[in-house]
Structure formats: structure tokens, C-alpha cells
Amino acid sequence: MDLSPKLMLILLLVLFLTPEYTLAAKHKRACKASVTQSGPSATVTQSIDAIILVAEPTSSSDISTPTSGLGAVQTTEASTPLYTDKVIGSMDLPKSDTISAVSATSTSDGNITASSVVGTTTSVAGSLSVPATSSATTNGSPSAGKAGVGLPVQEVDAAPVAQFFTPESTVAWWFNWNKNWNQGVMTSDGVSIDGEFVPMIFGPTYLDNEDTFQEGFTELMGYNEPDLKTSTGVSVYLEPAQAAETWKTQIVQIRQQYPNVKIHSPVMASNKTWLSDFFKAICPDNSPSDGWGDCVYKPDYVSTHLYNTDVEYFKGTLTAFQKEFGLPMVLSEFACYQFGSDPHPSLEEVSTFMQETTAWLDQQDWVVKYAWFGNARNSEYLFGVYETNRLMDASGALTDLGRQYMNGGKKISA
Ligand SMILES: *[C@@H]1O[C@H](CO)[C@@H](O)[C@H](O)[C@H]1NC(C)=O
Ligand SMILES: *[C@@H]1O[C@H](CO)[C@@H](O)[C@H](O)[C@H]1NC(C)=O
């Protein structure tokens, strides 16, 4: 193991007399955990779920520069922290210290368990006293981490989205149908947004355009609604075979450049047949029954949109969609609305729909992420979705529905 200073390792462990940390899993899966332990707490990314746990001392006096008693960790690629905004420090790993590995797993109820384990050592002299294992479980809610919001790039100013990312909010991620937000795509002067941003390649020409991907991104959304023929600019229509050709070149390029990034399939407006034809074109020798086997062109997740007002239809449609493609699923747009039938659901109906659908989405372990649609100041950027679905009003202030969404989708009693 190379322990040269070049290999700056992120500080995972601080031992104090009364160590007490908040172990926060930011961005995904869980929000907060209180941890009291004498062993290490951690900064971890888990390869599958990219869980990032960040140890934050509960009082500022604890943020003194650690001297002795530092454990340190994690040199495998899967553990390279992708987000460092809340990491409390970094250090060179002293050659003599015991290496403590840290792992994190999420349970189906949304809790996160972080464990520290004494791992292999290079040489031990004056080794740390690290418990063989120490663990802490979050009291995360199952919803934590899946919910996101989109703020259409046409809104230009990114600032209003920041309000969704409070410590109490279950909203964990956001997107703008484009490649970055504060690297030139939106205005962002002085805006800080404490949530994961997921870039998108809106259509094939976007991959190599002049915009850069958001720094530190861990997931990438695929072409937007290529199954939709429309002149409204919300999609770039492609035949499945045509999309498959560019996809095969582009996914190879992306995987080479960003090997750890999770890639979403092209995002369907609604047409399962389109996506099925697409998969047959990119992975002709594989099938969904084994998750498309070793097909090098397969995405990590399948992705769709769904606009409907009927909760049972919603559940059935998404279940069938995921079954057909056999990969974990992202629902990156949904609302209580149905295009073509022009429903005008009341605020109350939308609120109930949100509560029931989000509760169900949270329970399905094959749902990776979801995002309510209806988050823009300008009505034009609701693209026809009925106004009662708004998470923010025309001035950018949160609506009651926006607050409900931040509350795990559960209605807030007045
Ligand atoms: C998850 O956390 C809740 C609330 O703290 C707790 O009741 C439950 O037992 C935990 N589940 C597991 C699997 O630890
Ligand atoms: C769905 O996609 C397939 C494949 O491109 C196409 O043949 C079919 O017409 C589409 N269906 C609808 C309803 O647009």
C-alpha cells in the first residue's frame, strides 16, 4: 500500500475524549444519524449506492486539528469520496498506524449502518486503539435520499432550488436537464446548494458540446424523452436504432472517462416499446432476466417519466416498466396530471396523490430516485402541467406542496 503524502486520505476518524459526532449521509439514502462511539466514524462512498457519510463533530471545539489518535482509511477507488463539502479534514496516513476500513450499508427501511473494522496493516508501531468493530445506525426514514427536484434550466437563476435542501428536508438531489449548474449553465452568484446535482445529456449532441459536467457528479441522466415527437423543445426525437448507435459510442466514452458514474437509460416520456427496441439494439445477446448480463452498453438504471392522476395506475405502470427492463429504476418526472385529458386536480387531490405515490416509491427497493415535476416560477416552464402541482410559486417561494415534498411527501397538518 502506497502511503506517500501524494495519497492524501480523507480524514475518517477523530478520537477525542468524548467523541460525539453527527454522522450525516448526505445526498443519498439517509439524512442524519447520531453517533456516539469511541471508534471511527466515517467518510465513505459505497460503490453501489454512493453513500457518503460525513463525520461532523457536534461542537465546533471538536474541530481542532487532530494530532494523535487519527485513524485513517480507505484507499480503494470505490471509497474515494466524491463529495468533500462536509468533510472535516484530511491528513496523510501515518505509515505506522493501523488501517481501519470503514463500510456503510443501507437497510431496506432506510437506515444506514456504518461500521469501522480494523483492516490489514502495513506495519504497526504505536497502533491506534480502534475497536475491532464499532457501528452506528441512523434513524433515517425510508424516503430519505430518493426524492429530488428539477429546476428547468430555462429558469436561468439556480437560487430558488437551494431552499429545498435544509437539514430537515428529505429532498436530496436535483437536476436541470443540463450538464451543470454553476459552471456556466445557470446563474449562481453566491448560491450554495446542499444537494446532489445530477447532470443530463439531453440529446446526443450534448455530450461533446462546450458545457462541462458538474464537478464531482456521480450519476448521469440519459437522453430526454427521445420517444416523444414534439415541437415544444422538451425532447430530441430519435428512432430507437438511431439512438442506440450514438449511445454505444457515447457510453463507452463516458465509462472510460468517468468509470464510477452511474448512467441512466434514455428517459422515456411513456413508450416502453421504444426502450425495449433500444435495449434489443444495444444488448442483442442479453436479456433483462440477468440484468443484461455483461453487455458493455447497458445503463445502470432505467429511467422514465409518468404523468397520471390515478395512484393505482401509477403503481401498476411503474412496476411493469421495471419488470420489463430488469434494472433499478429512476422516475425523473411525475406529477398529478395527465397530458391529453387536461385534468384540473385540486390542491387537495394533488397533495393526496403526492403522499400516496411518494410513500409507495419509498417502499420499492428498485426505485433509486424520483423527482416531482412542477418546480418553476414561470408557468411556461411547467410545460402544461397543471398549476396545482407547483412546488414553488411564481415568486420562487415554496408552496404548501413544496413543503410537503420536503417532509417526505407526507401532508403537514395545519
Ligand atoms: C431503523 O431505525 C428505526 C428508528 O430509529 C428503528 O426503529 C429500526 O429498528 C431501525 N431498523 C434497523 C434495521 O436497524
Ligand atoms: C413507440 O415506439 C415505437 C418504436 O419507436 C414506435 O414504433 C411506436 O409507434 C411508438 N408508440 C407510440 C404510441 O408512440
TrEMBL record:
InterPro entries: ASL1, Asl1_glyco_hydro_catalytic, GH. Residues 1-24 form the signal peptide. Keywords: Signal. Residues 157-405 form the Asl1-like glycosyl hydrolase catalytic domain. It comes from the Eukaryota. One of its GO terms (biological process) is fungal-type cell wall polysaccharide metabolic process. One of its GO terms (cellular component) is fungal-type cell wall. The keyword Signal applies. Pfam families: Glyco_hydro_cc. The keyword Signal applies. PANTHER family: ALKALI-SENSITIVE LINKAGE PROTEIN 1. This is Asl1-like glycosyl hydrolase catalytic domain-containing protein. It comes from Kwoniella bestiolae CBS 10118.
